[in-house]
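For the sake of clarity, the format in which proteins appear in this thesis is described at this point. Each number in the token line that follows is a code from a learned vocabulary of backbone shapes. One such record is shown here in full, so that the layout can be seen directly:
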Amino acid sequence: MDSITNALINNFIEKLGFPTTIDLSTRFEYFATHSILSHEVNSSIFKNDLDNLSVGKAKGIDSIAFCINEKLIFNSEEVDNFAKQSLKVDAFFIQAKTTEGFSDSETGNFLDVVIDFFSDQPKYIIKEFDTHKEIYKKILEKIGSIREFNLHCFYVSLGAKQEVDTTIDSTISIKKQAFTGLNLFKTIRIELVDKAALIKKHKKAINPLIATFKFDNKIPLNNIQNVDEAYIGFIPFSEFKNLIMDEEQDKIKSLFNDNLRDFLGLENSINQGIKSTIENGRFNEFSLLNNGITVIADANNGRGNTLILENYQIVNGCQTSNVLYECRNVKNIANVLIPLKVVITTDDTLRDSIILSTNSQSRFTEEQLFAITEFQKTLEDFYYSNKTKDGFYYERRTNQYTNSNISRNDIIEIKEQLKSFMAMFHDIPHVVAGNIGKVIANYQTEFFQKEHKPLPYYIAGLTSINWEKLLLNEVSYKEFNKYRYHIFMGFRYVNEDVLFQKSFLQNTKNYSVKREDGTRENSYDKLLNTLRNPAEFKKSIDVVIGIFKQSEYSRPKGAYSNPITQEFIKNLQAYINKDVE
């Protein structure tokens, strides 16, 4: 491996918070998986995600990922989150080799294992595939709702791809015929990714989005507080496509991360109307019938009518943008005029207001509103106020710290914050481990409420971060990572002075107790002191794991089992009562 590629991989590993001691092949596998999937899904990909997607040293495959409506799925429980939706399913299989070259036999072996994965009577029984097989089986139960199922196979090597025909081309052609025979996939994509292509994908994954386009038909909106620049006007599709497509003419999925709604598909009645307007050549009507697109960016580095937007997002107009992309090959579509609003600002409060106001006619869920609730900003500020003491940050927005030198080990993102908090302070580790959608649907009044104290959330975040540090330093804890949320709950039980009650979350309530000696002790203080002492934290976690081992946790789907949780709570209470006596 050349020094430049090695440096990029090492920097990536350090940035995402992986231990530098992991072997080269595993580092390269994570590097390749992240670089490829970052362009394929509308989800941020973190360290735990890569661990979950990895199938270790399984036969011929390094990573498997299933995606529904461009969102990564990590277990079969999450498939239910898409009930009553039209489903676009994408399956990704990745093999990454540090060797300099593409082997015909290894390409064939890789694709044979993928073919076998989808076979009704597989020849290979590979334990590492079990979770992914369960996801696939659950997806098949929704077969009537699947509008398309696409297969993507990536064979990555540090070699250079040969431009002339080789035997690999014949092998790929033969395997494609086998995939076609399964009568399952709408598209079958088999791609050889060489070093140059991989590095290009990686750089695009880690750098902020930049788009250059001409906005001739615009009116400036001046003298708006906390706004550097703002424009409103119309833009032809010939220029608008530079906002939604990369240089390979592929759709940029990550630019919709701040949009409150995901793409609902072409079968959606509103989207059908947009599509019909375009396909029927009613271009003059389009700008009258469409509410348009709102784009927010951190900076404009262009001049005059040429805008060069940096770190931009489409915050309203996801449906229109996606339909326009799907219709990109319609004759004369370049002439379609699209209503466009561009705002250049780094003010988060204003950004949130724009997102809410431009989506005022849309119905959206609590999950979609997470990043722009009043409490989220309060929590972000609370983390920042403790930065000097603990050095951690809360990422309420996707890729908020992409351009910083902050390690992922020092950042809590919104989903992990929610999972850790609900596991620790609502005793549902089995639910958050299996399906965060159930938490959102069934407990939406129990978290991120404006009257809540930020401190319990902060404690949950510190617990997660400290757990990650244990994983970095000692491999023995990895066995329990799938039960991390049970361990977090147990940590709270073992270290609290008073049994937690939901009323303690309110700003008006003190989480404290009257002792016989007349002193008052705050239970949060005890939890914080343990979290801020690495030796004490490790000692406490070891106690919790010892108690957890008394449960039958290793049985199938133990991490998602309510009986396991209840048994664990019973054993925790027995330990605490014995300790008090």
Summary: The chain is about 45% helix and 15% strand.
